[in-house]
Specification:
alpha+beta; Glutaredoxin; 5-stranded mixed beta sheet; two-stranded antiparallel ribbon; 9 helices; 7 strands; globular
Amino acid sequence: MARIPPDERGVAATGGSQTGGIVTLILDTPSPAPATATLQVEVHFDFVCPWCLIGKRQLDAAARRFEALVPEARVAVAWRSCELLPDTPLKGLDYEDFYIRRLGSAEAVALRRLQVKEAGRAAGVAFEFDRIRRMPNTTRAHALLAQAAAQGDTALPSRLVDRVLAAFFLEGEDIGDPAVLERLGRTCGMPESALAAVHEAKHAGGANRPSYGSGGVPFFVFDRTHALSGAASVGALLEAMLETWQGRAARALKGA
């Protein structure tokens, strides 16, 4: 089982943008290759992790480049919910107080935000931390994502993930508020029947961590054979995609 070193994990409140090299996963039961020319990417993430927004935008760019280089292939993304702070009250916490308690001082918070903003600018993301008032519990947001994934529209989950992340980090919306989530889901094209999930979600507590041993997000898994931890660059994500694709071709030749 592959493990990512702790200093390369992108954790919600204190995570760094450092990214390790491509890791080859050793699974007890490897995932069978899809019948179609699809590269499967699973992304373990949480909505309160700023590195996840950076990683999401980088992944979008890498997928476009991969599909241009390998025109017979398509990238399919599956979003794997990982609540980093599941014990946060459903009504949320004061955002500034949360970070000062976590990092120790207002100065430490300012330095960390500067680090994230610099990484965000490189990815075309302009974080607006000063607009955020609440640190939300993300149970309801992940419940909404589960409903989006059940609608049969393969593009809907990614569209919703991007919209919710942007609403939180760029617009300061309280994404723990059911009314806000309903509105965001509606703007992404979700049916009214699916929006009820934000009211039915229960605060279970207990972290839902990535299953490959990293414990941090974002965590990218490619065809369940390769992985990257942290807000990887477009180049690193593209390299992982190409290496995964080439490895699949090599296995196919070996089995022929």
